[in-house]
Amino acid sequence: MLAWAVLALSALGLLVSAYFIAVTYRWMRPDPRWMPPVCRMDEGTCAQVVHTPQARVFVLPNSVYGFGWYGLAAAAAAAQLATGEWLACLPLVAIGLFTVAFSSYLFFQLRARLKTHCVLCYTGHALNVLLTVLFGIACFG
Question: 66: closest CA among 30, 5, 57?
Answer without folding.
Answer: 57
